[in-house]
Amino acid sequence: MALCGSEMLESAASLPSTTQLALREAARRLLRVPESMVRVPVELGSQASKMILQISDFQPGRHLEPEVVIAPGSTSVCVFTGKKKCVQLAGPEPDAEVCWIPGSLDVIWTEFSRYVAALAQAGYPGCIGCGGADAELPWDEMYRRSEMLGT
Predict the structure, then answer these.
(1) Whole-prediction pTM value?
(2) Beta bridge partners of 81
(3) φ/ψ (deg, to 5) at 149
């Protein structure tokens, strides 16, 4: 059974709620885009490939799957739509249009993968209400960053 809304937040209960919201937004961005690329450090290559296969298993009608690119020496995970970065997990602060989740990549990656799987299993983006209550609201990246960083 897919986790939705508050159930997803409970699965990541060890993280602050602002980080959970950003992780859910990052997962939605990955799943909304038909053609995307996920750039990961070498040590996450296998896990990233498994995550993409899981998306395909949950959504067999999906025509294009995200491509996984291994980036030796990288300390972050980035999702790109074309050449434009739309998500960054860990690493230095990116431009304001990128959904950025600061912190330990190990923890962030684990929770990001869980959110992606739960949303994909629920049928996101083709489902109604499964993206969480905040899915229909505009995302304010700078506000969320200030919350996560406590500034």
Answers:
(1) 0.85
(2) 84
(3) -90, -10
Contacts of 100 (CB under 8 A, 6+ apart): 22, 87, 88, 93, 94, 141, 145
3-state secondary structure of 28: helix
Burial of 111 (0-12, 13-18, 19+ CB in 10 A): buried
Please tell me whether the peptide bond between 94 and the residue prior to it is cis, using omega within 30 degrees of 0. Answer: no
Residue-range domain boundaries for the chain: 5-59+66-149
> From residue 78, how far is each of 4, 14, 46, 99, 124 by CA, in Å?
24, 23, 16, 10, 20
Q: pLDDT tens for residues 64-77? A: 678 999 999 999 99
Helix, strand, or coil (residue 115): helix
**Residue 36, CA atoms < 13 Å, CB-side half-sphere:** 23
Structure tokens at 126: 């083709």
Q: Quote the distance between the C-alpha of residue 23 and its chain's center.
A: 5
Helix (H) or strand (E) holding 55: helix 45-58
